[in-house]
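Pinned message: reference record for Fe-S cluster assembly protein HesB
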Amino acid sequence: MPIAPGHERPAPRPRRSRPETPPDDPDLAARALEIHRRLCPVYGCPIPYFHSLDPLSELVSSLLSHRTRNADSGRAFKALRARYPDWAQVLDAEPAAIEETIAGVTWPELKAPRIQAVLRAVAERHGALSLDFLREMEVDAARTWLEAIPGIGPKTSAAVLAFSVLRMPALPVDSHHHRVAQRLGLVGARVDVGPAHPVLRAQLPADWSAQDLYDNHEILMLHGQQVCHHRNPACGRCVLLDLCPTGQARRGAV
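Predicted structure (tokens):
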């Protein structure tokens, strides 16, 4: 039925992805530590770093990995390095050639020009095609520098600092980590992955080392992959069940 003039429904307000609980909530901090304490023996802390790339290479690797399985992004990265041993060569390459080289990742047609644009921005802003200088900066300042480049968000900036040979104390949050944190009530249901980064970092001790934060990311990611699945989480074998509002609700509904 048509709506009479003057009685139009107001436009819906845009949804904001914001923390629903203060990040310095002491109860959440205690829960975050207990979660870490329980998961560490399950997944074997301290967890070895999965590779040791220079920070610029880690940046390219992270850009390739977006919405792509690790095995596929890893093959694409190796193919890119084999074809272009120097990242400066990527800047001079035809985007179509880069796209062909990384064809195994999701959206290679978007990632090829994005990688070139990001590398160009690094060279223009720093005066050299290198990110080694980040080791001289504080973590927050280094992440701000990286995130000023279009195409680099919180997950990528944290990955560059945490996963590369810089080994800086930054906390990446991927989709598995984020899903587990939401189900455990560490972040609200409407808080997206990007805004979840400062919330989850603030719940952990400020003086934690790079290894501590890397372990925290890895154990929550692994728990999401192996137990807290996107569909049909295995709540019955979860060591966090008594801490998990989502698991308790699922168990009560059975």
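Pinned by admin. Summary line: Residues 1-23 have pLDDT under 50 and may be disordered.
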